[in-house]
């Protein structure tokens, strides 16, 4: 583990004045750990009317176009797991975790296609702001086993580079001043809401959480009342609008 490399990266990142300098430093850090590709993304933020967008990226040739053409963003297991993740995770772990997802077979085909483009495995680092998920940092290529300490180092680098890029774009203040919602959800209510947003039915949610479908419906009815929602679609829309899920 090259701790010196990542410490040097954080020092140079603080001194960077341009996007080009940040890109060069980031590419050097990623390659020094054996990865070929990376991305730094802004996650969708309905309350700011922002769509998912790229702050910095280096992906295989033609992969981005193919990803868009086949609408992989709808079933990408790393994106689906990212919505609920609170800490870094490995790509293959996301697919294993979503074993009950109705789109699992298509997810597997997508990951196989990614492998043919050199994206065999990697890691995703969620980046949270005052009111939930605001961005992500991903690294990938050939399989690389990072130690817990290395994951922590990359997690620190992910947050630092995300906010640095926002500062260079004069957008950091916008993200830091997202209004907080007074509505609070319990852990189980959050899990149910996230799974609803992923398109799961009551029976599928029950299997995922190892509870009865009757209990799932009880939670959903309670969420309808808490949000003042008319139906499940309205509930999900309100949850996104209030930045309770991302």
List keywords for this structure.
Tscrpt_reg_LuxR_C, Sig_transdc_resp-reg_C-effctor, five-stranded antiparallel β-sheet, transcription, 246 residues, globular, 5 strands, LuxR family transcriptional regulator, alpha+beta
How does this model look, in words?
Keywords: DNA-binding, Transcription, Transcription regulation. One of its GO terms (molecular function) is DNA binding. It comes from Aliirhizobium smilacinae. One of its GO terms (biological process) is regulation of DNA-templated transcription. Residues 178-243 form the HTH luxR-type domain. This protein has two domains: 2-177, Transcription factor LuxR-like, autoinducer-binding domain (Beta-Lactamase), CATH 3.30.450; 187-242, Winged helix-like DNA-binding domain superfamily/Winged helix DNA-binding domain (Arc Repressor Mutant, subunit A, Orthogonal Bundle). The longest helix has 21 residues, at 148-168. α10 crosses α11. With 246 residues, it is of the alpha+beta class. Strands 2-1-5-4-3 form a five-stranded antiparallel beta sheet. The mean pLDDT is 87. It has helices at residues 3-15, 19-32, 63-69, 77-82, 91-97, 104-116, 148-168, 172-176, 187-197, 202-209, 213-227, 232-241, and strands spanning 37-42, 53-58, 89-90, 121-129, 132-141. The radius of gyration is 19 Å and the shape is globular. The protein is built from twelve helices and five strands.
């Amino acid at each position: 583990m090259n701790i010196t490399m990542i410490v040097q990266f954080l020092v140079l990142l603080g001194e960077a004045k341009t996007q080009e300098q940040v890109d060069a430093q980031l590419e050097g850090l990623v390659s020094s750990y054996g990865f070929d590709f990376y991305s730094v993304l802004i996650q969708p933020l309905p309350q700011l009317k922002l769509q998912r967008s790229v702050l910095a990226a280096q992906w295989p040739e033609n992969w981005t176009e193919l990803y868009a053409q086949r609408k992989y963003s709808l079933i990408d297991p790393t994106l689906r797991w990212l919505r609920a993740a609170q800490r870094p995770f490995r790509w293959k772990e996301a697919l294993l975790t979503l074993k009950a997802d109705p789109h699992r077979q298509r997810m597997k085909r997508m990951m196989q296609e990614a492998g043919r483009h050199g994206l065999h495995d990697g890691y995703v680092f969620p980046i949270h702001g005052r009111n939930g998920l605001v961005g992500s940092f991903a690294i990938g290529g050939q399989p690389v086993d990072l130690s817990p300490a290395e994951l922590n180092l990359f997690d620190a680098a992910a947050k630092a580079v995300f906010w640095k890029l926002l500062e260079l774009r004069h957008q950091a203040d916008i993200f830091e001043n997202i209004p907080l919602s007074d509505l609070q959800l319990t852990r189980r209510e959050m899990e149910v809401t996230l799974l609803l947003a992923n398109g799961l039915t009551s029976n599928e949610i029950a299997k995922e959480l190892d509870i009865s479908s009757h209990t799932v419906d009880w939670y959903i009815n309670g969420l309808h009342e808490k949000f003042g929602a008319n139906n499940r679609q309205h509930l999900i829309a309100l949850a996104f609008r209030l930045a309770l899920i991302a």
